[in-house]
Amino acid sequence: MQNKIRKYREKKGISQGELADLCNVSRQTINAIENNKYDPSLQLAFNLAKSLDVKVDSLFIHEED
């Protein structure tokens, strides 16, 4: 699943580490999500959206098969 987390994080002017702290995960987790190597849990997706001040459906792009 593709995402726009990096775009919104950079727009907000925060680092991966700062976003990780806001969401109670490691910086490596944020990096893996941004690079589409890890799909976050539903709870983490909502935490990311809240931390970035966007709706959760704005963060993710569903890829059709």
Question: How would you portray this structure in words?
Answer:
- This protein is mainly alpha-helical.
- It has one domain (2-52): 434 Repressor (Amino-terminal Domain) (Orthogonal Bundle).
- The chain is 60% helix and 6% strand.
- The chain contains five helices and two strands.
- The protein has helices spanning 5-12, 16-23, 27-34, 42-52, 56-59; strands at residues 2-3, 60-61.
- A two-stranded antiparallel ribbon has the order 1-2.
- The radius of gyration is 11 Å and the shape is globular.
- The termini are close together.
- The mean pLDDT is 94.
List the helices and strands and how they pair.
Elements: E1 2-3, H1 5-12, H2 16-23, H3 27-34, H4 42-52, H5 56-59, E2 60-61
Short description:
The protein has 65 residues and is mainly α. The protein has helices at 5-12, 16-23, 27-34, 42-52, 56-59, and strands at residues 2-3, 60-61.
Number of separate strands: 2
Residue-averaged pLDDT: 94
Largest sheet: 2 strands, antiparallel
What name goes with the CATH superfamily?
Answer: lambda repressor-like DNA-binding domains
Q: What is the tally of helical segments?
A: 5
The CATH C-level name is Mainly Alpha
**Main sheet: strand order:** 1-2
Gyration radius (Cα, Å) is: 11 Å
> Unreliable stretches, pLDDT < 50, 5 or more residues?
none
Task: Give the overall shape.
Answer: globular
CATH level 3 topology: 434 Repressor (Amino-terminal Domain)
The amount of helix comes to 55-70%
Tell me the distance between the termini: 11 Å
The percent range for strand residues is 5-15%
Q: What is the level-2 CATH architecture name?
A: Orthogonal Bundle
Task: Tell me the domain tally.
Answer: 1
SSE-based structural type = mainly alpha
